[in-house]
Amino acid sequence: MDLHALLMDIYTALREAFGHRKWWPAETPFEVMVGAVLTQRTNWRNAEKAIAALRKAGAMNPRAIAQMEPEQLRSLVRPAGYYRQKASRLRQLVTWLIECADGDVALLDKLPTDDVCEQLLSLRGIGPETADSILLYALDRPVFVVDAYTKRLVVRHGLLHETCDYFELKDLFESNLAEDVELYKDYHAQLVEVGKRYCRTVPRCRACPLHPLLGDPVEVEGF
Fold this sequence. Notes:
Endonuclease Iii, domain 2; Endonuclease III, domain 1; globular
């Protein structure tokens, strides 16, 4: 199987169906970092409400968040759910950014991708998907972000086994696509969109833009 050709055919079909997704919506790279934390275990609409609250409070910068009273920060991020955890994670993230780059996201450009990733993963509550989202969308590093939508589609169509982990999923794309930041960004966004619209827990395969290419999926319990 020519995985490069297949993955590009999938991307082309999704791009033709949905257009360019223009994801991640944010005014600054730092806002992307904040959004990556706030969108954990919730939908983007809820995360966006918390982002708007931080903006309105003049707190969309590392030092403002670091100096904010804990209760105020929790109140602002409450719309994103799990607000105590997320307030704590945001505070850890901005503390790291201040210590590592004087609070300036642009200064992270001097650090190798692997070093930044390792440091992000050392922060409590920052897992591989959140770290990779920050690397790709905030820092323009060529890492492919995968999520539950990606795994569902990949497993259903037999590209990987249902026991595959995050890193096997990520490697499937990084090993078979050109190292292209803009492609990685839009491809991930396309997979999220097809997952939300069609590749659901109960799939809508016949209406899916990938059906002519991939056909009906293999039935896998739990997917």
